[in-house]
Amino acid sequence: MEKESASGVRKEKIRKSALLLLSLNKEDAAKVLSKLDDSMIEEII
């Protein structure tokens, strides 16, 4: 049960991160994405 809850929290954080990126202009979004590694970007997409 705890693992499912942690997974749900992680999915919610990823969803919020994606929404935040969408709210940024292109330049700011590019700066944020340049700081992430490939696996983090794949999770957001």
UniProtKB/TrEMBL annotation:
Gene3D superfamilies: 1.10.220.30. Transmembrane segments: none annotated. Coiled coil: none annotated. This is Flagellar motor switch protein FliG N-terminal domain-containing protein. InterPro entries: FliG_a-hlx, FliG_N. It comes from the Bacteria. Signal peptide: none annotated. The lineage of its organism: Bacteria, Pseudomonadati, Spirochaetota, Spirochaetia, Leptospirales. Pfam families: FliG_N. Residues 13-44 form the Flagellar motor switch protein FliG N-terminal domain.
